[in-house]
Amino acid sequence: MRARLPVAAAALLLALGVTAGCLGGPGTARPGRTPDPAPPAPAVVTGDLGPADRAAVRDGGTLRWAVDAVPATLNVHQPAATPESALLAHALYPAMFRPDAHGEWTPDPDYLAAAESTPPGQLPQVVTYHLNPHAVWSDGTPLSAADFIAQRAALSGLDPAYTAAGPAGYAAVDSIAQGAGPHEVKVTFRRPCGEWQALFGPLYPAAETATAAAFGRPLPGGTAHPTAGPFLVDGYDPAGGRATLVRNPFWWGEPAKADRIEFLAVPAERRTEELASGRLDLAPLTTAVEHAGADPAEALRRAGALPGVTLHRAAGTGLVQLTLNAARAPLTDPALRRALARAVDRRHAAEAALAPFGLPAAPLGHHLLAGDQPGYRDDADALGGADPGRMLDEAGWRRPAAGATRTGAGRELALTLLVPAGSATLRRAAEAVAADLGAAGAAVRVTEAPADAFVRDHLAAGDYDLALFAWPAGPAPADEQRPVYAKPRPGPDGAPVAGRNYARAGTEEIDRLFERAAAEPDPPARRALLQEADVRIWQLGHSVPLFQRPEALAVRAGVTGAGVRGLGRPRLQDLGWAADRRTGVAG
User: Fold this and answer.
1) How far apart are CA 452 and CA 457, in angstroms?
2) What pLDDT sits at residue 16?
């Protein structure tokens, strides 16, 4: 099995536009002073959009949606998948459960009449899915156990011929069989799976996953590739930068409001112009603002001033963190890592990064959860309340004179802080972090790496001291976040293999906590285990959560149901033009 980054993680690590903002109040740290003990983080609202009101949306019309590129595949588990793959896939393929804006799972009645798991503690764990009997693929074949069986075989990691991996829950499945009738599916687990709702969404037809050769083919839609969603693929041209979805006439659920949605590849720097000319109706602007140069706030102001356009801004689901490379001296010492983490004023970094977006500078205090996910808590107190200067002294790094760089073990405490090139917001946050560490006596130089080399040549290769990037929060943190903090294990040559743990710091205890959380069926108990894991990650000096990556979306007046959705997925059949629409461009 070939290891790879999940779609959202790869996008955040390589795109990394990070901006939002707020007002610095009393207690905000600045260079030259010791940061105050971190106050409780203010509530962070991830997303700005509630459930769509279908009654307010008229039938008909076209929506034109800007994307970075039309993806080469709609299979979100293929190495070539992108965030656009996931966006389109969830309009075309089933998902048994959907996450809401806070990451809580709810059954999707279009596909699932009911689902239940055996009681906690009863082994083996068996989940029974009762499929909606009206749910069929676009070739007329009903959804069935065969689709579940083939997808589990493709994503379990048991067959090396498949070049991708799904969530860890697939590996926990022992067997899948048809239940009492054709619409009942029984999934038996070889070990408990607490986040089983994350599986089988999207669900692909058995013909596309039953063999490694079929699984590796692109899925551009059309009659050759059955789908089962409110839309069908009417045109798909990755090279030309256009994908068109139209209403599925065989759809059994609430019909799509829009006649068609056109996904158009538009470079970030051209999106404001395309909005102004009326050629776009929805346009993500985070990257455009992020690369606007020295004044992203002005770029946002211009976008918000466009006639007939509403600008949505909210904290996103990317958790921006300062990662410390524990495999590179002098950061091999946990005491030094903890002291440096204590010296970082998270509110200072958040303000520097977020102010241009006009969002609150809410510092992040959890490695695994976004600010409004159930169970979120600021765990930074796990570092202790000692002054960072004293902690550095105790770690063996002392100042030879006031204001001088600390020295220890015959060397100066001089470090580099790596950010991806072109990310003005991450650069601002990095400069704030460097100032905080400089005030504590560490000489930190901010450097940039080309975006296409940032992960490959630096994070994955271990060629950095400190680095600033983001991991995505998600509705299944025990599964999704576990590889980021897993203790590196020896490879064939005996050297530790970091995988996605770019900090290269881990413990058996943290691994066991993730294992227990992944197997825990009771959500409060699972969150308690994740809290304990987060405390241990803080104490390890693995990384410092800083803030949530902001998102900005421009929406043409009259478009209803569009905004920043947090951890939820867009229900594209609910999007469309307002019933009393008097503005915007006719579809």
Assistant:
1) 9
2) 39
